[in-house]
Amino acid sequence: MYWYSGKLIQSNTIELAIDDPGLLYGATVFTTLRVYHQSLAHPLTNWQAHCDRLRHSIETFGWQLPNWEQIQQGALSLISHFPVLRITILPNGCELITGRHLPRDLTKKQKYGVKAWIATNYERSLPLHKTGNYLSPWLAKLAAQQHSAEEAILVDEQGNWLETSTGNLWGWRDNCWWTPPLSAGILPGIARSQLLEWIKQHCPVQEEPWFVDAVDTFEAIAYSNSVVQVIPIHTVIKQHGEVIQKTYNPYHSSLKLLRQLYIA
């Protein structure tokens, strides 16, 4: 079941023209949101922020604007079936909305954390926009899994940490939360924006580059996105599988603050 161009369709296939730029070049923009209590109006769903992100990218690329009422209608048609929606917009303004369930092991990862792999030479295309050309992060995550890691950490040419293949990074030290700045070339995550505003109400937070020699100073690190909320990272392995000397505490008390945002 999915919604495409104003219609709810009962199928697992879609028909696209063979010269569709979304098919040929990944020329789409998308956003993925978790719907809380089956309500687009719930503050944690943050519906308007997801629509605003789509609008910003569409206007930046000069594409045709979609029918926003039609998009909302499609989302409402699916939220009784799926807690997670992905809204994709094609250059001609057509919308494709698909749904999925939460990962089965999400609670386990949130509690115990995951292992991450440093992914060099995986540069994300147009990092300030969430485009359908997501090949590089997808390949990075596949490579991480080949090293028995659940996530990949993308880095710049100097090896500075940027973000994971699916989310934004958070680190705790000196009684302060730290996250890489947007100027480093990372995705402006919706969950990142929510967490920034939440943290600022309770403790200091700094948006600074994560230089290679600084990441070992963190007591705890985690990543966030709109679907998984916050997941700690307990171990980081390098390109060829060797473990970085310092591991991180997935049970650190500082993580409680990040999680409190999602207590609804």
TrEMBL record:
A Gene Ontology molecular function term of the record: lyase activity
Entry's Gene Ontology BP terms: carboxylic acid biosynthetic process
Protein name, entry field: 4-amino-4-deoxychorismate lyase
Record organism: Chroogloeocystis siderophila 5.2 s.c.1
UniProt keyword terms in alphabetical order: Lyase
Residues spanning the membrane: none
Family: Belongs to the class-IV pyridoxal-phosphate-dependent aminotransferase family.
GO cellular component: cytosol
